[in-house]
């Protein structure tokens, strides 16, 4: 009796409230939705719980997923792509070529100009005749050739050189070129020949030449320093990795320092030769 009353009261209360009695299909649908919602929630919880465990798995892998290498994980954290990595590697290779090939070539070019000037200064004291033979003269058409190609150069005495042009048309050109070469030379024209009187070798001339060579050495060091600064600036602006940039900068420094010391020693040796080789005018006077 109690169960019937309770049941009747429940039905009556539902009817009084105006609510309809739920059908079986509605109950089944509600139960299914609740079950589906529970599965979705469980899946989301599983994914969020296992996400840290899957961070090192390559995306879009199928089947057995491969774990990433240390470098790949580092690149993923830094946001690098494969193209960016290849571009950075190519940039590092180009920087290596610049440091190992281009930079030494530039240093050699700097030294070549310095060495040429230093040797000319020394030869003016030690062997003026040889200097004149290697002197370049401009001919028709704007071309430059060695003096010995357009004239005969003969040393007639210890202090005199005669230049005989192969053609009379070269006479004035050779005269002007020799006069500009060294203001200490006494140049005159005798008929078709050009007579050059070489000043005697004195201690004052030697000292002057050594001073010129020392000045060239100082300029050489400064130019190498400027070249080194430019090379380092290129490395800094290239956007290289810190380790690569430091390594290449150290290589630039060691290359520049070793090159300067080696070539400066050669130029200093040339200065010593200027001071010791040849016979001074004072020596000739003493021999008399």
From TrEMBL:
UniProt xrefs under Pfam families: RRF
CC terms in the record's Gene Ontology section: mitochondrion
InterPro entries noted in UniProt: Ribosome_recyc_fac (IPR002661), Ribosome_recyc_fac_dom (IPR023584), RRF_sf (IPR036191)
This protein's UniProt keywords: Protein biosynthesis
GO biological process: translation
Keyword Protein biosynthesis: yes
Full protein name: Ribosome recycling factor family protein
């Amino acid at each position: 009796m109690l169960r019937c009353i309770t049941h009747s009261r429940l039905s009556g209360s539902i009817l009084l409230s105006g609510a309809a009695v739920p059908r079986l299909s509605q109950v089944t649908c509600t139960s299914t939705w609740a079950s589906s919602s529970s599965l979705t929630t469980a899946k989301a919880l599983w994914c969020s719980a296992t996400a840290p465990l899957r961070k090192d798995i390559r995306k879009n892998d199928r089947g057995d997923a491969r774990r990433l290498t240390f470098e790949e994980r580092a690149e993923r954290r830094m946001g690098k792509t494969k193209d960016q990595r290849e571009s950075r590697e190519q940039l590092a290779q180009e920087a290596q070529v610049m440091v190992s090939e281009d930079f030494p070539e530039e240093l050699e070019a700097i030294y070549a100009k310095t060495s040429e000037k230093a040797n000319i200064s020394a030869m003016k004291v030690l062997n003026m005749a040889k200097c004149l033979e290697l002197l370049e003269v401009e001919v028709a058409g704007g071309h430059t050739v060695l003096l010995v190609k357009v004239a005969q150069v003969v040393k007639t005495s210890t202090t005199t050189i005669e230049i005989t042009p192969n053609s009379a048309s070269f006479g004035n050109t050779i005269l002007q070129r020799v006069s500009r070469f060294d203001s200490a030379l006494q140049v005159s024209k005798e008929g078709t020949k050009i007579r050059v009187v070489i000043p005697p070798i004195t201690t004052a001339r030697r000292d002057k030449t050594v001073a010129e060579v020392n000045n060239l050495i100082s300029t050489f060091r400064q130019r190498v320093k400027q070249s080194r600064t430019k090379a380092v600036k290129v490395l800094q602006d290239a956007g290289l990795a810190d380790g690569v940039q430091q390594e290449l900068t150290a290589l630039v420094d060691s290359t520049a320092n070793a090159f300067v010391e080696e070539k400066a020693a050669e130029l200093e040796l040339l200065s010593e030769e200027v001071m010791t080789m040849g016979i001074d005018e004072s020596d000739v006077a003493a021999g008399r």
